[in-house]
Specification:
This protein is of the alpha+beta class and 417 residues long. It has five helices and five strands, in the order E-E-H-E-E-H-E-H-H-H. About 16% of the residues have low confidence.
């Protein structure tokens, strides 16, 4: 896969990046590709947010975590600068550790290493020839005094002094350059040894990866075989399970059939016993029928005799009914005559009521007339005390109801006549 990294405003693409590739591997590849040295850090930027990535983090995994926002994520390679205010005495003699590493499966060209090493040593504070201080000039009192007699000797001495100083400076610079070259050779030799060792390790690990890949392929084939075998076994197990279910069903059916057979046998035995009982009952019933037939014949004879007697009684009752009809006709005639008499009595009662009302009116007039005239004391006494009481009781009801008089709460003893 490819990873886009911005280096000093230029977008660079790193190829062969996997999920296991770390930030250290990416920094190492970019540093050697651009031919730069120093301390570098990989920065993750999303819109206005920035975050420094650790050397062991995986940029591809980080980019995959963003999901749909992965296109907005940018990776920037930034170079860390060392502060210049720090005195040269306190600086370490060793080279600053770069935040770089070896990319797996990618061989490093020798030329880039050579250039990087050169830049590293060129940028170091102790190995650069510009910063080497020249040896101080000898003080003037150490030089021999110039001769007074001859100017030529003085000029010769001046020339020799200049040559000596130039030779001294050249020798010092030459020694420093030789030492620096020797150091660089040793460093290059050690780096070449490290490169060969790393190449051997890479080859070893590539062989290991191939072996592991072969093992994985073999394991995948074995897994396929095992899965196919398991599928066949599952199919067989399912078929056997179906057969087992059928056998269990057959066994259950056998059990049910056996239980049904036992029930049927018991029912047959019960039926046989019931048949015997029924036969006995049939015999008893036949005897009872014969006896009942005899009884019925006797009953029929007695019924015939009874019917004859009933017919005789019916004839007698019909004669009585005819006599009762004749008597009822006579009663009807008497009732009609009684009704006529009652109507006559009612008319006579109405006439008597009218007579009574006339008498009452006459009594009222007589009373009024008597009130106007002073009555004698005996009459006043009769008026005050009322008429003398008689022992006879008042007749309640009409004379028609005397025959059917019923005692009540007012007349508990009936009607007095």
């Amino acid at each position: 896969m490819e990873l886009k990294v911005w280096v000093e405003g230029i977008q660079r693409i790193v190829c062969g990046v996997t999920e296991n590739t770390t930030c250290q591997d990416v920094v190492f590849a970019l540093a050697h590709a651009t031919g730069k040295s120093g301390r570098f850090t990989l920065i993750e930027r999303w819109r206005n947010n920035e975050r420094q990535l650790a050397p062991h983090e995986n940029p591809m995994k980080i980019q995959l975590k963003w999901g749909e926002y992965s296109n907005d994520v940018q990776f920037i390679l930034q170079r860390n600068t060392i502060s210049k205010k720090q005195p040269e005495v306190n600086r370490p003699t060793l080279l600053p550790p770069d935040n770089v590493g070896v990319v797996k499966g990618v061989q490093q060209p020798i030329k880039t290493v050579h250039l990087e090493v050169r830049e590293q040593f060129a940028g170091s504070p102790q190995s650069s020839p510009k910063k080497v201080a020249p040896p101080p000039a000898p003080p003037p009192y150490r030089d021999p005094p110039p001769p007074i007699s001859s100017k030529k000797q003085q000029i010769f001495q001046d020339v020799t002094k200049i040559r000596l100083t130039e030779n001294g400076l050249y020798n010092a610079q030459y020694r420093e350059l030789i030492a620096l070259i020797n150091y660089q050779r040793e460093k290059l030799n050690s780096q070449f040894a490290d490169i060969t060792k790393f190449d051997a390790e890479i080859v070893f690990w590539e062989g290991k990866e191939k072996e592991k890949q072969l093992q994985l392929d073999y394991l995948a084939q074995e897994m396929l075989k095992i899965t196919n075998h398991t599928k066949t076994q599952k199919d067989q197990i399912q078929a056997l399970a179906y057969v087992e279910e059928e056998t269990e069903l057959v066994k259950q059916q056998e059990k049910t059939l056996k239980s049904e057979i036992t029930l049927l046998r018991s029912k047959l035995a019960n039926c046989e016993t019931e048949l015997l009982q029924c036969k006995n009952k049939m015999r008893l019933l036949a005897d009872e029928l014969q006896s009942e037939q005899r009884m019925t014949t006797k009953k029929t004879e007695s019924r015939i005799q009874m019917e004859r007697g009933i017919l005789i009684e019916l004839e007698r009752i019909q004669k009585d009914i005819e006599l009762a009809k004749q008597s009822s006709e006579l009663h009807h005639l008497t009732v009609e005559t009684l009704k006529k008499e009652v109507a006559q009595l009612e008319t006579s009662i109405i006439e008597k009521k009218k007579q009574v009302e006339q008498l009452v009116n006459e009594m009222k007039e007589a009373n009024l007339h008597s009130l106007t005239i002073a009555p004698p004391p005996e009459d006043l006494r009769l008026i005050m005390e009322g008429p003398p009481r008689s022992s006879t009781r008042k007749m309640i009801g009409s004379p028609r109801q005397l025959e059917n008089a019923v005692p009540t709460s007012k007349n508990p003893h009936g009607v007095w006549v």
